[in-house]
């Protein structure tokens, strides 16, 4: 089963602890919970290495199941799922006063609020669009997904402009939550998080509708460089195909490193040939 962790009614690094299990968000009970467990939650969410248990219903009461109780973490644990606890139970505690509230206060070295990636394509610039939110990677529903949305994703990834905006899980179905639907970018935004969208958790969409993109660029290859132009000229389909890119089945597919090696080897041979010619001419002149 897919598991996820989040803090609610506060911010990304403070709130009431909830876990996603068996298709439903629920609270975590605080019986026998130590400071180390609170710190582990903060580490799990990328919210630093310090934190504490808040008191007095600071972040409100939950309304769903109470999935876990008697969680015991140690200093070696960096994820809540590594810690010992009682078995999963929708009624782990009957008193909402026992729900866990945590505030993370440490050095937040790596908060993953705006992480974006594409998965399942041929390179880092094509594939199923996934975003990191509330401690988990999730997909985007393809409702209203278009080239303007894809342009923002491609630009944010440093992959140029969009060649196409794909729907219906063109690069395979994702797993976990579906975080967004009905994204409406103008195409000029610097980040996908600047676009209007509707938050979602798989209620009105399933992974058969995962959104995807094909971008015109390739990370690590600057299209503005002479070498980049040469590669894109010699192998245009490799970088600009409008169709979803699938794993190659033939023996004629070259990866980008192989292409670069071929070109650099050719250039080296040309340089050596020129040098050899100059040496021969110099010897002829000496005679």
UniProtKB/TrEMBL annotation:
Classification via InterPro entries: SRCR, SRCR-like_dom_sf
GO process annotations (BP): zymogen activation
SMART domains: SR
SRCR domain: residues covered: 5-105, 116-216
Keyword Transmembrane part of the UniProt annotation: yes
Keywords: Disulfide bond, Membrane, Transmembrane, Transmembrane helix
GO cellular component: extracellular space; plasma membrane
Record-annotated membrane-spanning stretches: 254-277
Disulphide bond pairs: 29-93, 73-83, 141-205, 154-215, 185-195
GO molecular function ontology, one term from the record: serine-type endopeptidase activity
Domain of life: Eukaryota
PANTHER family: SCAVENGER RECEPTOR CYSTEINE-RICH TYPE 1 PROTEIN M130-LIKE, SRCR DOMAIN-CONTAINING PROTEIN
Name of the molecule in the record: WC11 protein
Gene name per UniProt: Wc11
